Amino acid sequence: MTIRVGIAGAGISGLTLAGILSRRLPHVHVTVLERAPAARDQGYGLDLDANGQEALARAGVYHRYWDCSQPYSDHMAFFRIGSHGPEPAGVMFRPALLRWLFPATFAARPETNRGALRDILLDEMATRANTGVVFDTAVRDARLHVDGGCELFGDSGKSHGVFDLIIDAMGLHSTLRHHRVVDASGGKAFGGTVHIHGVINSPEAACGAPLLARLRKYGSVAGYGRGYLIFLQRFGAGSNDGRTCCFYQLNHLDSAESLLDEIGVSPPSSRASGIMTDERLDKVKRWVLHDMGEVFDESWRDAIRSLDRVTADDVALPLVCIGDSLLNCGLGGGGILAMQDANELAALLEKEGAFDDAGRPDLSSLRAAEGAMLARKQEFHAEKQQRARGTCAQVAERGRGPTEWPFELDDLGLPGWKLGLARLLLPRVAALTNAWYRWDEWRLGRVGATPSTPIYPSVKKLLDSGEGK
Ligand SMILES: Cc1cc2nc3c(=O)[nH]c(=O)nc-3n(C[C@H](O)[C@H](O)[C@H](O)COP(=O)(O)OP(=O)(O)OC[C@H]3O[C@@H](n4cnc5c(N)ncnc54)[C@H](O)[C@@H]3O)c2cc1C
Question: Can you give the residue range of the structural domain that contains 141?
Fold first, then answer.
């Protein structure tokens, strides 16, 4: 059976994920839908950390890493703003000795060209029959499909197809994130929605007068409010067939399985066994009546008591957000985090049991991963805001004349004792670093990473084991 995975957005996280899945899960068919044309500008560079480089290995393109990366680009010289001399005041670099001794920290981390990286991922995917990337195709929304999958729609409402799992990798302007994330600043990931639904075979025989009066007059009735939703509808064939279905919606639960666990009913192994008419029916009814508390009047409670069968189903969209669509992290590391999300999600989807026999994804593990990704981004955001406060202090320093350092320590907004310590240590650290830099330069001719520089041990392990390429 082929599992259908749809990825919305052919940016850095979407294409990385597609690259790994297409190589490592041949039974999965991956479709990437991208709003922009194939020739779209991809921005500048990105210095991939261990996660990003592992992702390239797992996507089978690590052997082309240096085709899209800039040699000697992983160090930076700081000059005084007012000085025209050739000598920097300080250099931030990765000493060759430390690279060999501690590659996990000091491995090659050059600037990688985003456009070239994308082309390499696309080239590799084009060699595989299980992946398609469709450009000029915007995704507007997603809806649950009757077969349990998720259908994607374009701008004009045109269907882009039905998928067993959708990954939203549309970045900052995602049109799907509202399905998964509560507020505009990306505060919180939603849980899922579960329906307890069932049938009253003959309301005329089972229900009391108030409920019957409503059903006779309106056919379909709904109760909504205080975080509750209940819905009843006649669906019998002909006027003598009074069969009525009932839906009771729970918006705060992750899965039907966790609900059944709470009720004390074992999860069904098939659709047929999920229709409960035995002692499980009474347990579910008791649970719903308790959940209704004092909020519902007697006619709604009557409907629950009259049910002849019940089923509990997940109605959560099989949709997961990654990258900036989850929370916009942007400049200063958002791309690195997006690659990490893609790498981690792919690793989860590779695990045994990630999809069941019908091709349905194990959403609970994906939800947990999505929550961890969001938490990581929130931490990143908080640090970024902290740095922004330092930037404000720097703005206030403008126009105060030439500086002794390439940046003024006072501008960093450090609290008193930290500023004192920085004043004491920084000149000494800078002198030592500069001397070390010159030594590396004298020995090697030029400082910085090249294809022969030690790589991250985790990447090496993947390559040695044949898992990467
Ligand atoms: C100027 C600049 C410099 C940056 N420099 C760095 C850096 O040096 N290091 C770093 O780590 N990060 C950097 N970032 C941040 C980084 O670019 C983002 O965090 C990263 O691109 C997010 O990746 P993503 O895959 O989540 O989304 P994106 O890369 O934004 O990809 C989203 C994709 O989805 C597509 N899309 C959007 N809407 C739709 C739709 N409705 N239907 C279909 N497709 C759609 C878009 O066209 C795009 O191709 C920089 C950002 C900027 C703006």
Answer: 3-74+109-190+317-383
pLDDT tens-digit series, residues 242-293: 999 999 988 767 678 888 989 999 888 887 888 999 999 999 999 999 999 9
CA 180, CA 142: separation in Å to the nearest integer? 11
- Identify the H or E element spanning 117: helix 114-126
Q: Residues 437, 446: contact at Cβ < 8 Å? A: no
459 within a domain of the structure (yes/no):
no
Same domain? For 303 and 244 the reply is yes
Residue 326 CA, closest ligand 1 atom number:
26
Pair 323, 180: CB distance under 8 Å = no
Question: Which of 295, 314, 333 is where one domain is finished?
Answer: 314
d(CA 10, CA 208) in angstroms, rounded, equals: 57
Beta strand segments in 411-453, E: none
pLDDT above 90 covers a percentage of the chain that reads 64
What's the confidence (pLDDT) of residue 400? 64
Both tokens of residue 38? 């194939």
Phi, psi of 168 (to 5 degrees): -90, 105
Q: How far is the CA of 127 from the centre of ligand 1 (A)?
A: 25
d(CA 462, CA 57) in angstroms, rounded, equals 7
Strand partners, 244: 200, 234
One-letter amino acid at 181 equals V
Report how far ligand 1's centroid is from the alpha carbon of 231 (Å): 42
The verdict on the CB of residue 133 being under 6 Å from ligand 1 is: no
Q: How, if at all, do strands 76-78 and 111-113 pair? A: unpaired
| Of residues 145, 175, 130, the one with CA closest to residue 5 | 130
CB of 10 shorter than 6 A to ligand 1: yes
389 located within any domain: no
Q: Does residue 87 lie in a domain region?
A: no
Using CA atoms, how far residue 440 sits from 99, 234, 250, 301, 398, in Å, is: 12, 81, 63, 79, 36
Rounded CA gap, 293 and 301, in Å? Answer: 10
Degrees to nearest 5, angle at CA 157 with 151 and 158: 70
48 neighbors 206 (Cβ within 8 angstroms): no
Q: Are residues 216 and 340 in the same domain?
A: no
pLDDT confidence of residue 42: 83
How many other C-beta atoms lie within 10 A of the C-beta of residue 2?
11
Tell me, yes or no, whether 279 and 364 share the same domain: no
